[in-house]
Design brief:
Number of strands: 12
Oligomer: single chain
Distance between the termini: 24 Å
Strand order of the largest sheet: 4-3-2-6-5-1-11-12
Order of helices and strands: EHHEEHEHHEEEEHHHEEEE
Number of helices: 8
Structural class: alpha+beta
Shape: globular
Helix content: 25-40%
């Protein structure tokens, strides 16, 4: 891996992967998703361009996507089998491997900011449920009524699933988990992920997104990773840590390491997408689905927003 360039920063974001094609996504959905991804890039890159940290940048980018109803995180999140919204998020700082995560949050407007507060204002890594919301309120994070997160499309999606007798993993997941990875001008990396889980989830199910080492990981010695997809398989593969380990111990670049881990997930029966940022300023995205909402920008002036598999 080449030495860090002190002037180079990179930000990559995703908005979930799945059966996303030009046939399944209408023109308005396409335009709205691209606009939201662009706003997330703007929020994060403004911080990086001003010399801010990777952790600050990924939190800012995720907050934009949590507030946008076109994605399955924060407002617009999927409903559980019982018709509730239960939110998960995680953030990790590659400088120190400090991390914070929350699961089953129901009242905190921006779960990613709660995860960061857990990281910097508590001795813990993970909090869940009403305790996590209480911690958020005690630290002045905005609280909202649970129905603030709900949009009609998600209620209709749940009702259709229940009417068909399906379960959480039968749903056509057009929207998904959101994530961000960044490398700042000091050469440090960070990752953040936020999700509403899957439509119709039951019994307090938690996927890979808030699990450090699975859906979220950052280590300056290797890379920063955020994942989206069938979470159970990403957990079983320890996806984020596995990519980092391949880069550190085998000397693989970000793309090669991500290809290998995603292939392992697919072989087990899973599907999804991954974004990666490395301390040398390189980045990669990979997905095994027809599409993934994704965007990248860097200090060299490169900027790309894409959705479908046939976009570069």
């Amino acid at each position: 891996m080449t030495p860090p360039d002190p002037c180079r920063w990179t930000l990559m974001v995703h908005g979930g992967s799945g059966r996303i094609t030009r046939d399944t996504l209408d023109a308005a959905g396409d335009a709205n998703a691209r606009t939201a991804l662009g706003r997330a890039l703007d929020a994060g890159t403004a911080i990086l361009a001003a010399g801010g940290t990777a952790v600050e940048a990924v939190e800012a980018a995720i907050r934009v996507l949590e507030d946008d109803p076109h994605f399955n995180a924060g407002r617009g999140a999927a409903l559980s089998h019982e018709g509730r919204i239960e939110l998960d998020a995680a953030i990790m700082d590659g400088r120190t491997r400090n991390a914070g995560a929350v699961a089953g949050v129901t009242r905190t407007r921006n779960p990613i900011s709660l995860a960061r507060t857990v990281m910097r204002a508590s001795p813990h890594v993970m909090m869940a449920g009403s305790g996590a919301d209480a911690f958020a309120a005690a630290h002045g994070l905005e609280q909202v009524a649970p129905d603030w997160f709900e949009i009609p499309q998600r209620r209709a999606q749940l009702q259709a699933m229940l009417a068909d007798g399906g379960d959480a993993f039968d749903v056509d997941m057009k929207y998904g988990t959101v994530g961000a990875v960044a490398r700042d001008t000091a050469g440090h990396v960070a990752a953040a992920t936020s999700t509403g889980g899957v439509t119709g989830k039951r019994w307090g199910r938690i996927g890979d997104s808030p699990l450090i080492g699975a859906g979220t990981w950052a280590d300056d010695r290797g890379c920063a990773v955020s994942c989206t997809g069938s979470g159970e398989f990403f957990v079983r593969a320890a996806a984020g840590h596995a990519i980092d380990a391949r880069m550190r111990h085998l000397g693989e670049d970000a793309g090669t390491a991500t290809d290998a881990v995603l292939a392992e997930i697919v072989a087990m029966g899973g599907t999804g997408g991954i974004i990666v940022a490395a301390p040398d300023g390189s980045s990669a995205w990979r997905f095994s689905t027809p599409g993934m909402y994704r965007a990248v920008a860097d200090s060299a002036g490169s900027r790309q927003i894409a959705i479908y598999g046939d976009e570069a």
